[in-house]
Amino acid sequence: MSDKPGLTMQQKVQNFQLLQGRLTAAKWISMSEPEVGREIADLEGDPLFQDLMYGMPGQSPVFQRKRWPASSIHSGFYEIKDEISAGGGSGDIADLLEDKNDLISRIQEIGVEAFERYFLYGEEGMGLDKICSTLGLKPEEAKRILDLVLKVGSRSEFFHVSPTMETSGIRYHCIASIEKDPREPENLFFRFMTPYWARGKYVVQYDRLEDWKKERNLGSENKKKLRHLLKKVELLNMRQDTLFQILSRVTSEQSSFLRSRVGSRRRPLSLRELSRRIGVAPSTVSRAVSNRSVQLPWGEEAPLKSLLTGQRLVILSIMTDWMSDGRLGEGVTDESLMQRLAAESGISVSRRTVNECRRKLGAGKPRG
């Protein structure tokens, strides 16, 4: 009997921790893109993070990055300075670049490929001393380049203005452009609008971390700072990974529509079905797609949630095309339409649903 109260208290503590974890995750998923940009700038500007990411001279870094598959940075990132020179852009971002002309010239000297490889993506986990040695940079120059990427990335709204989306009364933040591979048009890929999206997620070398802690002989205060930093890295990874899974799944499901721009090629994909496929709660998907947009392959910007389409809307769109083609007149049975939907679009529905949709369209009376 004496064990039961203790067990009950343990369960309460576990339930509280679980609830607290869910609330924290929900908070990070719900953050706007500018808010996350500032959080990342704060994290990566921390000397402790920089030590872990870029290492001390002669030591391997503890952190690395891992890019998302089939992705890169949007060309808009390199067009900021041109826009400002032409009189566009924000005064804030203009002030940021005003005194960085020498640095921008230095970036141009090392070239886009080297800049992206060592300063943007950093997948190789190379220490700052090795980067400087490879590119012939001074440590101060390399640090200033990293700082510039961080500051510009935290102000992403200044190099992607969306007047069309803003007129709807809702402020959308475009996270990526979905594009067709010019060499293989069947393949779609992403160009992310901000450096922190293009960089992917953090990878922590935990074996190396243990050695790092022993080498530093951390005191209690620094151990606490390290735990806080690692927790923030985990939360950012969780947020970005969830959002990327949603973006990737939606793009894959709607690939036929995105490649062709034919509305009737949309696939039914509900919020609940998407949440089931990626293994998160529907409320998480709802928060993730809220106020976020993507640029479609033909240049139009659209809310991410617009690519989540109900089954009936898709069927109505398909049947509208059939009507215009003369394939849905009187005498065409509901059964034949049901079979055609399954064969041509992979949509399995009941005869009753087909009947209701054709009646809504006024698409003739079925025979028999």
Describe the structure.
- It is a single chain.
- With 368 residues, the chain is of the alpha/beta class.
- The chain folds into 2 domains: 34-307, no CATH class; 311-361.
- Helix content is 59%, strand content 8%.
- The protein is built from 19 helices and 7 strands.
- It has helices spanning 3-30, 33-44, 47-54, 80-85, 91-98, 101-110, 112-121, 128-135, 139-153, 163-166, 195-198, 206-216, 220-253, 255-260, 271-278, 282-289, 311-324, 334-345, 351-361; strands at 63-66, 71-73, 173-180, 188-192, 201-204, 292-295, 301-303.
- The strands form 2 sheets. A 5-stranded mixed β-sheet has the order 2-4-3-6-7. Strands 1-5 form a two-stranded antiparallel sheet.
- Helix 13 crosses helix 15 and helix 18 crosses helix 19.
- The longest helix is centred in the middle third of the chain and has 34 residues, at 220-253.
- The radius of gyration is 26 Å and the shape is elongated.
